[in-house]
Write a structure and sequence with these properties.
mainly alpha; two-stranded antiparallel ribbon; two-stranded antiparallel sheet
Length: about 400
């Protein structure tokens, strides 16, 4: 363990924030999983605690391994992984899993281990790294919209269209983050306006097609429309059950909460250990716990800005923003849903909610940020002396991925 701690690099504050979020997650997950224990098990909640611990342990292993990789390697890896995630998304969609006639093809089951994996979360991280690579490549070039259409926007729209039928909220978040990243990366605003208009047209066409031909392909359009209508409609409907229970939990929490493990709404609130865990946290820990959790995410955002500012490499800056900001954005959306400031989306609370894929991909993204924040990464653009130059040449000869990254 001591050897591992000595090898930890990168921003120590980010490490501390992630560790605090992980440690804090155990009590609410253990408490909120009681309804799952009785619905799908023998009432033993300890099993869910062990499972959550295993997910976090693997997640921290992924984060540690990724943060040891020099960040410029992710240029080449993003190109290699884009076709892989497209194939995975196609395979996920081909399963045609439905719940009540709606598309529920979000997960694949990994062979041999039997663990489910949500492919869209991997696609999001890979796509953001790919976009950051392309923007860093054209940073000092004058490029037309036509020239960027195939290498930049074609992969983006392919990934989004494969995610959209089963998971609108994830597709919308990815699209929003891509637009934000290209804006910060200096992509012409007039081209961004064209992309926004095109995206809106594609979404409208998709919804109209799904409404006109509901049996043509599984989709969740009716669910999206229902959630939006319920959010803007003051009348009580059966679909408001989740948010009403979440509001009751928040109201019961008060300032200091009912105490760890004393939530009542965990027994009635669906997805209490994942999508609506923030409501359970406020019920048990009160306003103090809810504000403290929000403070941790805002501190993470603050450190992301600092890491991006300190990096002397444009790809490093864009990579930090591209893979780091969606974590904070997703957390704020999850909290906003719990307090009814946003329609129900199904997004988890990063590093706190139960669920393997979300934890693993969040840790992978943070590992990439830590790679950029490490001293070796920040100083990578400094002029090497002749001895170091010879050593780097030897490294390049021995490592094909290094050669590919530098060429890209």
């Amino acid at each position: 363990m001591t050897k591992v701690l000595k090898n930890i690099k990168g921003d120590k504050v980010i490490w501390a924030i992630v560790a605090l979020l992980a440690l804090f997650s155990f009590l609410p997950v253990y408490s909120a999983s009681s309804n799952l224990a009785y619905l799908y098990g023998d009432g033993n909640t300890f099993v869910f605690l062990v499972k959550h611990f295993a997910h976090l342990l693997l997640g921290f292993g992924i984060m540690y391994w990724v943060h040891k990789i020099p960040f410029h390697y992710f240029k080449g890896l993003s190109i290699i992984m884009i076709p892989v995630v497209i194939v995975l998304l196609l395979f996920t969609m081909a399963q045609n899993n439905t719940i009540g006639g709606a598309n529920a093809s979000r997960w694949i089951r990994l062979p041999f281990v039997g663990v489910t994996f949500q492919t869209s979360t991997l696609a999001a991280v890979v796509l953001m790294a790919y976009v950051a690579r392309y923007l860093s490549k054209i940073r000092d070039k004058k490029i037309s919209f036509k020239e960027s259409l195939l290498p930049l926007w074609l992969p983006v729209f392919i990934v989004l269209m494969l995610i959209l039928p089963a998971n609108f909220s994830t597709a919308a978040i990815i699209f929003s983050m891509v637009v934000m990243l290209v804006f910060l990366g200096g992509y012409p605003i007039r081209y961004i306006a064209v992309i926004l208009g095109s995206g809106l047209l594609v979404l409208t066409f998709f919804i109209l097609t799904a409404k006109a031909f509901p049996d043509a392909f599984p989709n969740r359009v009716d669910t999206w429309v229902s959630r939006a209508e319920n959010f803007f409609n003051d009348k009580d409907t059966p679909e408001d059950y989740q948010i009403e229970r979440a509001k009751i939990a928040i109201a019961r929490g008060g300032v200091i909460g009912k105490g760890p493990g004393k939530s009542v709404q965990r027994n009635f609130l669906p997805q209490s250990s994942s999508d609506f865990i923030y409501a359970i946290i406020i019920e048990e820990w009160g306003l103090v716990g809810g504000v403290f959790l929000m403070f941790l995410y805002l501190m993470l955002l603050f450190r992301l800005v600092i890491v991006a500012h300190k990096s002397s490499d444009i790809f490093g800056k864009l990579l930090v923003v591209g893979v780091g900001l969606p974590i904070v954005f997703q957390a704020l959306i999850n909290m906003a849903v719990a307090v009814e400031l946003f329609p129900v989306t199904g997004q988890t609370l990063p590093l706190v909610s139960s669920g393997g894929t979300s934890i693993w991909m969040t840790c992978m993204a943070i590992g990439m940020v830590l790679s950029v924040s490490s001293k070796r990464s920040i100083d990578i653009q400094e002029e090497p002396d002749s001895k170091n130059s010879k050593n780097e040449e030897l490294i390049n000869e021995e490592n094909p991925l290094e050669v590919l990254s530098e060429a890209i």
